[in-house]
C-alpha cells in the first residue's frame, strides 16, 4: 500500500517539471477523465475550458497533475485513476460517488488516515454503491463538503459483509499540501 496521505508534506518544490503536451495526449486524458466522471459531462467546458492553457506537472512519488491555467485540477499516481483535487470537487460536489464517515472517524481522515469499514457502516456513515477500485469522495457526518478523496480497496457489498479493515485509501485530504497549493507557477 503506502498510498496514504501522499500530499501530507507536499509543496510546490516537489513538482519536478511542467510540460505542455500534444493535443492528442490532452484529448486522451480528457476522454479518460470524462469516462471516469460522466457526471461532469454537462459542465466539462467550465472545468477544462477549450482555450485553457494545459500542462502536465510531474512530481515525486510518480504523481502527475493536470494543470489548467496554473490550477491543478486532477492528479494520478502511476497509471491509476485520475482523481480530482478537493478544490475542484467542492465546485462540482456531485461529480463522484460519496462515502460518508461517522463523526468518530473525522479526525483520523483529516490526518490522512485510510478509512476503515466501521466508519461507513455505523449509524453516522453512509455509502453510495461502488466496486473496488472506484474513486470516491469522503464526506463527514454533519458536513457538506468532501474532506478527502480516495480509492476503494473493496466494494460496498464487501464492506457490508466484512465490516473490518481498510476500505478506502484516502490519498488527498483537507489542508494537506495539495489543498494549500492554489496555483502552480
In short:
The protein has 185 residues and is α+β, with helices and mostly antiparallel strands. Helix content is 25%, strand content 29%.
**C-alpha Rg (nearest Å):** 16 Å
Distance N to C terminus: 31 Å
Q: Based on DSSP secondary structure assignment, what is the total number of beta strands?
A: 11
Tell me the structural class: alpha+beta
Shape: globular
Written account of the structure:
By secondary structure, this protein is α+β, with helices and mostly antiparallel strands. 25% of the residues lie in helices and 29% in strands. Strands 7-11-10-9-6-8 form a six-stranded mixed β-sheet. Strands 1-2-3-4-5 form a five-stranded antiparallel β-sheet. The protein starts with 14 loop residues before the first strand and ends in a 5-residue tail after the last helix. The mean pLDDT is 90.
Task: Considering the chains and any ligands shown, give keywords for the structure.
185 residues; alpha+beta; six-stranded mixed β-sheet; five-stranded antiparallel β-sheet; 7 helices; 25% helix; globular
